Amino acid sequence: MAVFLTKQSKVLVQGMTGAEGMRHTRRMLAAGTDVVGGVNPRKAGLTVAFDVPGAEGRDGIPRTVPVFGSVREGIEATGADVSVVFVPPAFARAAVLEAADAGIALVVVITEGIPVHDSVAFNAHAAATGTRVIGPNCPGLITPGQANAGIIPADITGPGPIGLVSKSGTLTYQLMHELRDIGFSTCVGIGGDPVAGTSHIDCLAAFEQDPDTELIVLIGEIGGDAEERAAAYVRDHVTKPVVGYVAGFTAPEGRTMGHAGAIVSGSSGTARAKKKALEEAGVRVGETPTETARLVLERLAERTVPRDGIRR
Known about the structure:
Layout: E1 10-14, H1 19-30, E2 34-39, E3 47-50, E4 63-68, H2 71-78, E5 82-85, H3 89-101, E6 106-109, H4 116-129, E7 132-134, E8 140-143, E9 147-150, E10 159-166, H5 169-178, E11 184-189, H6 200-209, E12 215-221, H7 226-237, E13 242-247, E14 256-257, E15 262-263, H8 271-280, E16 284-286, H9 289-302
Parallel strand pairs: 1-2, 1-5, 2-4, 5-6, 6-7, 10-11, 10-12, 12-13, 13-16
Antiparallel strand pairs: 3-4, 8-9, 8-11, 14-15
């Protein structure tokens, strides 16, 4: 099983014909993702060949991906239900609005540097149309062995019982590597911008319902109160074990820092305060990624009845 992204997902890439779009489309195809089209109104009607081992067509020739003039055209032609956005920041708002208006189920916004007011606008519009947004400024998500939508390296780990939700792309990769011998159901990089679509809580709820996710890893960052809200949700709604990590234990107080633009003032928003909130909700929290990985292994070993809905 998986959350949000499966082997059956059909992916469009908005901005596929750009340099980053081409590079990461090739990587997504290599990971087994069913990339069914790109979107570029100036190149509609073209096809792009990707020489990717394991992703060739039936005759062993390079995989060809058509380019559509709009997301709606791509959906009508292919049945696509996921879009990955690789367009420049100035065009990201229009790209997400177009995808939402076309009825896409999931939009993964990789682009960084999007103005906050644009993120507010497209997230509100997507919520009104029923489209889930992951990001912006995120690495995307991967269901190992099934599909990869974004820029997460697919060869770090394999399938397994751990669900991962993280604000940080780098820490997503590190925890995947540290726990590669166990494996993951789905890893979701939600991004660290001030305004994001999918939250920690959204992912916690999805992993709680996923029968093949036995343990959840939650990675947060200093600043804001997202981790405290996630802690309250874990306390009230999550029966599976949760292990956490909050980036920024050594960060100085009173400064703006990191891609989240986190501001720490007094004890509010600090890693220590977030750790305390999580631990009070029953979450074990590491102070380094390696310690966090060790806690995951310990928690899995302690879990004597993994599927009865009771946290041990």
